Amino acid sequence: MAAKADVVVIGAGVFGLSCAWNLARNGRKVIVLDRAPIGTEASGWALGRLDPLLKGSGSTGSTEQDLPPGHIAKPVAQQELALLSYRLHREMTAEIESTSGIDLQVDEQPTLQLFYSDADRKSGLQSAESWTSLGFKTEILSAADITKIDARFAAPEYGGALVQGPYFIDSMRFVSALAACAKQAGVRVESATVTGIDATGAAGASTVHTDQGHYEAATVIVAAGPWSNHLLQALGVDVPVHPSKGEILRLAPPRSGSFATHLHGPCSLVNKKDGMVWVAATAADAGFDRSPSNEARERLLNSANLMMPDAGESEVLKHTVCFRPATPDDLPVVGRAGDTGSVIVATGGGGSGIMQCLYVGKLVEGMMSSDSSEPELASISLGRFT
Ligand SMILES: Cc1cc2nc3c(=O)[nH]c(=O)nc-3n(C[C@H](O)[C@H](O)[C@H](O)COP(=O)(O)OP(=O)(O)OC[C@H]3O[C@@H](n4cnc5c(N)ncnc54)[C@H](O)[C@@H]3O)c2cc1C
Fold it and tell me: What is the distance in A from the centroid of ligand 1 to the CA of 330?
């Protein structure tokens, strides 16, 4: 006999769990299905940077063609979502930590964006004013100012911008905490590989087929990250979400001691609360190839070396690979899919899904409560691709 719920969510990454938690808190019976343990995919391995201002070094880049060279800030639509998402994270951190009992390892170190060209510096000067007016203190620094922060930083001649406000959490702890919050709100998280969705049932019910049996629900949410389109295409829906392979190195701390400023340039270089120096990240269209590459390792070490030679020489303790659910404009894709309206897509977090997930979960709950087919924020609607 099929298990029944109001909502079945496919995918227990941060997008699926946030949707599930929001819906269960609002009285719905929710089952989340995943083929792998919590945190197996990008939601567990991401850098965990919550930055509403600067472009990520692993951004898929497809929106960059519209921006001038050296543009260091997020494009407008991405920044709007990022600010909403960032503020919600800040508001909810204490609740997530106390409900789950998990310390998210919030780490408030400042970000130092290094400028490698005149165009970078001009873009920094332009952005500094608007970021400060948004409440993010930003100082433009000379090369000499940078070495005063830490003499080990290799200051480029064009200087940099020191930004306060972007911060870090531990992604593996965060996705585990979301799972704990969802479970406390009554969500059932079950282990199953979804093989298909039948959205043509009587009275609007959909059936989710898995290797563990069938599940029936009035609404199915597809939050299967970069695998979402495999499930959606069978319903005649083609969502342009693809895997963007991202590799990260975790290094031993430099022999000269730890450092307390996140360096951002050709990559992110950050001494995280786990004691390791994270070098993040590459971005490649390589399908679902899970193998760590020597090329990525070299590129990340060279980038680290360029910003802080002491760090770039440290031992590599871990080399991870995971997949961003990337879209052509680097924004999520949320909305009702297919003819019956009983399937909702919630994916496309790209390189910012850890930051965006709480806000996206809230929007999905809002869509269901108001019975609308699109989320309140038009820039992330599925409709822009159909
Ligand atoms: C290298 C890298 C660094 C990143 N750094 C940051 C960062 O600093 N800040 C930030 O905000 N974001 C960051 N991100 C982005 C973030 O990790 C992702 O956007 C986010 O984790 C995506 O979450 P998700 O739930 O959509 O997908 P996923 O985490 O991929 O979860 C999808 C789930 O669906 C399951 N699934 C798929 N198919 C099926 C099926 N058929 N049956 C059952 N289960 C299925 C999978 O097992 C998986 O658990 C980074 C990403 C990468 C790759």
Answer: 14
